[in-house]
Amino acid sequence: LNISWKLALVYKGLAPSTLLSTYEIERRPVVTLMLATTSNLYQHMWRNLALRQYGINYRWSPLVQDAGPPLGLSEDELKARAYEGYPDGETTLFKTFKPYYHTLLVFAPEGADVAGVVKAAQTYPEGLVRTLILGRNGVPPAVAGADVYHDKEGHAHKGYHVAGDRLVLVVVRPDGYVGGFVYDVEGLQTYFSRVFGSS
């Protein structure tokens, strides 16, 4: 999926051709690691954490936008940062992720004004960004252009290591990897400028 969503955007004229150069930057280290891992498989008879998703991440990618760790988290709690695969909890968001659009997860604390975030997401080509607002302490108010969910059990907040007291924006790419972990519209615009080009 890594190359397919990028090719589609470039082919449709919605992203600059330089987006395609990120394919090799992201995939070569993953393939190298996967080959090294599978070469040593005979030594291990069980699936361990090193083989989970084959350690795939894109932390070196020029597409990744990570605003830094959430405050108060330990090193062990930073595993689901931008560049890692999405977490899959008891109640998963997996069904909302599709290979033809980015999914913007807006973790909204009670009383947060998310209208500006939704409006910013609507400036990108139609159908290429789906916005989901996730509230931890009740169902967030409806905002035109976004789907609203109550993360009643906190699975999404825990999975993405979001404390719930600060607005957090997580962008899940069409290939299912987190490409952006930011705190404001400016960070969101920085991420999408790397995908769609500067406006």
TrEMBL record:
Residues 146-196 form the Phenol hydroxylase-like C-terminal dimerisation domain. This is MRP-like transporter. Its cofactor is FAD. The keyword Zinc-finger does not apply. InterPro entries: FAD-bd, FAD/NAD-bd_sf, Phe_hydrox_C_dim_dom, PHOX_C_sf, RIFMO-like, Thioredoxin-like_sf. One of its GO terms (molecular function) is oxidoreductase activity, acting on paired donors, with incorporation or reduction of molecular oxygen, NAD(P)H as one donor, and incorporation of one atom of oxygen. Keywords: FAD, Flavoprotein, Oxidoreductase. Belongs to the PheA/TfdB FAD monooxygenase family. Residues 2-36 form the FAD-binding domain. The gene is Q9UW87.
